Amino acid sequence: MDVRNILSCLGENLTRDGLLDTPRRHIRYLNEFLTPKEFEFTTFEENHNEMVVVQDIDFYSLCEHHILPFFGKASIAYIPSGTIVGLSKLPRTVEMFSHRLQNQERITTQVADFINDKLNPKGVGVILKARHMCMEMRGVCKPGAITTTSAMRGVFSEDINARQEFLNLIK
Predict the structure, then answer these.
(1) What pTM did the predictor assign?
(2) Fewer CB within 10 Å: C terminus or N terminus of the chain?
């Protein structure tokens, strides 16, 4: 079923001025949003062994169940083990995994695993907090509800002090 059929099933007048180009614009938007942006994960050898945190990373995604937006903020921490990453690569990683038909839990896990695989750090922590339009605009209709997901790897899953330091830093 194409966009014109959907609009027609909803009883919309496809010849109405405001809807004439809507199907084309909608498909262009989906193609643009759902095409992952490739990037080079630039790393540097560095003898830094303290926690690195980037927080308040805005992200947007589309719920794979309803194709409605969900959006929020991501926080990422890692403890290097001889290699650091260019800081802009952490938000790019979130964007790469969120610009798909997704669910929040999967994004959280994919970001953590990707960073863990690329850097082989002592630990990685990822927390996403998001609002889901599929929960706010339909169904239960609970505007403003926040869903929080986390993924902890390495020392963040093994050492309560490292985990607590991360959580305290992003409060």
Answers:
(1) 0.95
(2) C
- The distance from CA 46 to its chain's CA centroid, rounded to whole angstroms, is 27
If you count DSSP H runs as helices and E runs as strands, how many of each does the chain have, helices first? 7, 7
Strand, helix or coil at 59?
Answer: strand
If pLDDT is split at 50, 70 and 90, which confidence band does 58 have? very high
Q: Where in the chain do CATH 3.30.1130.10 domains reside? A: 43-169
Kindly list the catalytic residues. 63-66, 104, 132, 134
Q: What fold is seen in the domain 43-169?
A: GTP Cyclohydrolase I, domain 2 (3.30.1130)
Tokens of 153: 């790897």
Cα 168 to Cα 5, 13, 74, 116, 135, distances in angstroms: 50, 53, 15, 22, 29
Q: Is 93 left (phi over 0), alpha (psi -120 to 50) or beta?
A: alpha
Pairing of strands 52-63, 101-102: parallel
DSSP for residue 127: E
In the prediction, which pLDDT does 1 show?
62
Q: To the nearest 10°, the Cα dihedral for 102, 106, 112, 113?
A: -100
Query: What whole-number distance in Å separates Cα of residue 153 and Cα of residue 123?
Result: 5
